[in-house]
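can u pls check wat happens w/ nicotinamide-adenine-dinucleotide
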Amino acid sequence: MEIIDNINTNWARRIIVTGGAGFIGSHLVRRLVQRYPNYLIINLDALTYCGNPANVADVADLPNYRFHRADITDYEAVAAIIKQYNVDGIIHLAAESHVDRSISDPFIFAKTNVLGTLTLLQAAKDWWSASPDGFSGKRFHHVSTDEVFGALPLDRPELMFSETTPYAPHSPYSASKASSDHFVRAFVDTYGFPAVITNCSNNYGPYQFPEKLIPLFINNIVERRPLPVYGQGLNVRDWLYVGDHVAAIDLVFHQAANGASYNIGGFNQWSNIDLVRALIAEVDRQINRPDGADLDLITFVKDRAGHDMRYAIDSSRISRELGWKPSLDFEEGLRITVQWYLSHKEWMDEITSGAYREYYDKMYKNR
Ligand code: NAD
Ligand code: DAU
């Protein structure tokens, strides 16, 4: 094993966050660099269409932050970064994450989510198993989704996804995430690899790419554009504020037993149509339009193919075993979220105009 640069021995931990320029990853990076100044946090992100350096601009100059533009499917690149910092932790969020895109182009989902995860697992295993203390003190945290469990019926409200619910993915996105979870478990079972998995419900909050329901619709309401509700809007999602999700990841990363998995969710189910009405009410309130002024924007459109009817996470295990619970109720979370998008119009405009891509292509061209 080669000698690692001394500089790395000064950090209590050296952790790669993959996908740290995306929505949830940027919140996690921000939390970790601020909360653990003695940790080195390495943001590894390919900056695909939804990765945006602006999402972490406020922490980019902190001494314990590094950024590497790299593709998780590139073994050599990933292995070199793991080695350069003698990484002892990986929190893996990089993914293709949008269900609609997976329906029109499933291959990139298999490549990034399945092969990318396998590449990371293999690179970490190769480096860690060759280190003097092997897997001891190492951790690979795989961030996954509740969609791996399939869909629940509307007429059985008592049913929820628990950690033992059998996998039954429907969309190419959830099939790819389920497959990546299986590879993580296979590494645990086969090699004793030090991994944990979390499966979370729908997140919302600042910095979410505006292809997802909440930021897309906030922007459309402001701009008085139609709100395309799929089908009849009866599908139910279980919404959690992104800050509560990354707090749970922090806890699981540090405290969970190897091989464990935890479901994360807010016990907060909303039908899409009720959520859209609540969103309209909140946006209108904040921009001083009369109550209900934008309800006419609701436009029912062709349903998403294979649209999962209901997701609902039972997160009692993480509460019971690790003491986690959501800190924000939905009303407050929605208020903060709407306020953030309204006061960060330039962030939204840079994305919708495509300007953010020129910025990072210039900035990171040679990395
Ligand atoms: P996102 O789409 O906002 O960000 C994904 C990030 O991954 C981007 O920064 C992108 O540049 C990066 N990336 C994509 N392909 C890459 C590659 N080949 N190599 C390196 N980086 C690459 O995603 P998100 O919504 O923040 O989701 C993050 C993770 O959390 C995903 O694994 C997703 O499955 C999971 N998750 C998301 C939600 C949710 O509601 N958004 C809920 C549960 C779980
Ligand atoms: O459950 C966790 C998952 O939540 C994550 O794993 C995914 O990465 C994340 O994208 C999210 O998936 P959804 O498909 O539930 O999220 P989305 O924001 O795309 O859609 C939320 C609901 O709103 C869903 O039922 C589809 C519907 N919808 C969505 C869009 C974009 C519409 O009715 N109209 C729209 O334009």
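DSSP finds twelve helices and twelve strands in the chain.
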